[in-house]
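We treat protein structure as text, and this decision shapes the records that our systems exchange. This encoding replaces a full spatial description with a residue-level series of whole-number codes. Below, we set out a record of this kind in full and without editing:
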Amino acid sequence: MAKRGDITTYMTVNNISQLENYLGIQFNDPSLLISSLTHSSYTSETPNVSMNNERLEFLGDAVLDAAISHLIFNKYPDFTEGQLTIMRSKIVNGSALSQSAKRFGLGDYLLLGKGEDKNGGRAKTSILSSALEALLGAVFIDKGFNVTCDVILNILEYDIDNVVSETMKDPKTELQEIVQSQTGEVPEYNVVSKTGEGHSTFFISEVIVNGEKYARGEGASKLVSEMEAATQALFKIRDTII
């Protein structure tokens, strides 16, 4: 375990303390924090430094997914599985994470190779998002899952609030706006099946976009099943150009 005085080999103690103050924690093992901020370009240029942040990024990516899932699942009990999935994907995508990292100046703390630094590496989306995930991986190892959730909420609260506002829009209306802007058409909804009677009724509906059966949803009413179908379509449309 590295001692806090050993940090000056790589970074100033003031810089480390400033970042820890923002996170609201102090690392028991500061070498984890150093590793999370060390880009592979730095290790390739620096003798006797072999540990970069790639392994911590792998861990932090999984921890972030689990933590965000845990946070929004508990905080928004009325949201469907489809809505929660869309929310999570918007919060944890690389572009959103890099913007979050820029807000608290994470790029200023990174250890980069001279070439990468000269080429604007401290502002690159891929480097910042990876470093943020690595930082969360380091927090997880050092402090555990509950503290990591607190740190994530502190860093991403602004983004979570924005995504919630977007998600609370009527998904059928949102889908129609997107489809109309791209194709000039409007989505159509068909009931695929209806089972049960009264309070036990169960619907499965599909949404047709530009002539394609695009997504399905299910629920206790025709409207609920259509809303879920629209939600699933919105999730799919993020990665598909209609």
Q: What stands out?
A: Confidence is low (pLDDT under 50) at residues 1-9. Strands lie at 188-195, 202-209, 212-219. Residues 171-237 form a domain with the Double Stranded RNA Binding Domain fold (CATH 3.30.160.20). The chain has two domains: 4-167, 171-237.
